[in-house]
What we know:
- The protein has helices at about 55-60, 65-70; strands spanning about 10-15, 20-30, 35-40, 45-50.
- By secondary structure, it is an alpha+beta fold.
Amino acid sequence: MTSDLGNGVPIATLLGGDGAVVGGHLYLWESGDLGILWIGRDREISFIDRSLEVDVLIRARATDSAELVGFLETLPSKAS
């Protein structure tokens, strides 16, 4: 990731186990990068609480977040 990402906003929650345990929050930065604020890094992430917009994923893939986008695309969404 770059050092100056601008402001970030939470856009999704990463869920572990049966989808009831919060493992982290996904942030979208002004730069287009994505980042995770981990609640418990030792928790296995199994779901994301909502589908991400395609344009968010495309923009993030063009930044330093390509590897993270690949991971996020493997997660099924689960309504919170």
